[in-house]
Every structure is written in structure tokens, then in C-alpha cells.
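Quick check before the chapter quiz. The format below is the same one you will see on the exam, so make sure you can read both the input and the output lines.
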Amino acid sequence: MHFRVNRLTFVLASFLAVFLIGCGGSEGVKLNNDAIELQAQWKYQEAIAKYDEAIRLDPQVAVVYNNRGYAYISLGQNQQAIEDYDEAIRLDPEFALAYNDRGDAYIRLGKNQRAIEDYDEAIRLDPHNADYYASRAIAYTFSDMDPEAQADVNRAVELGIDREPLERFIEELKEQR
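Here is the expected output.
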């Protein structure tokens, strides 16, 4: 489902965000960066422990909650991920990625309309992010809203997503309905 985040992009974006906004001083930044490295190695439980420590040092850094949410969603702990995304959004209501990621968790729970609402907000905050349109296209497909899904596929392609894998994935979803 994730067309937006490859591991390198995740690592670089998370490192930059925490470096720019801080995280409990250098120790918090180190913990967050250690967690990102663990997450890139699929060591999600260990990453969560590091994020927990970073949050203990500075509970006001939205990106760390979002990162930990990504680890939880990777483990299938979608409700826990939603709680972290909620906190990230509470701390930074303009954090478009947190809305998108929370939408991904809602999709996994079968709450398609709630996911669409989060994708709508992510797109409102960052209308030039192709991945958000791709995510919403998937939610629309799960909701049997094929014209809306196709419009979002087209917009995602305009913004840089490769059409063929996204359309193939959408078609596979349609076949599963």
C-alpha cells in the first residue's frame, strides 16, 4: 500500500526533521536516529524502544510519534499506530504525513471513510504530494468509488507516481471485492 515511502526516503526525511526541530538535545536525536536505522532493518520492536526513550526525553516532537506509529503499523498494531499519529497531529496540526499515515492505519482496520478523511486533510495541507493521492485512490477503491479513485490515480501520475504499478495494484484490489 505504501507507494510513498521507500526506506532511504524515510530515513533521510526523519533524520532531517528531527535534526531541524530537536528532540531532547543530542541524546534524543541520537535515539531517534538509532530507531530509524533499526526500523530500516525491520527491527520494529527495538526501534519502538528507542522511540520510547526519545519521547521520554522530549514528548513534544511530533515526528518521533509519527516514526513510532510507522513502526507499530509495520507490526500490524494499527490501533497503537493511530494513537501515535493522533499525538503527532495534536502536537503539529499541519503535519500532512501524519494524516496520511493515520489514513493507512484506518485502511488496515477497514475504516475506509475515516481513511479518506485523513487523506483529504493530507492533500489539503500538501496538495503536491503524489503519494497522498495514491493513498486516497486506494481508499476510494476499497469504498467502491472507482471514478474518484481513477481521478486520484491520474493526479498522482501527474505529480510523479509511476502509473503502471499503481493501476495494477488498484486492479488487484477491485478483483478482491
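If your answer matched, good. The first helix runs from residue 7 to 21.
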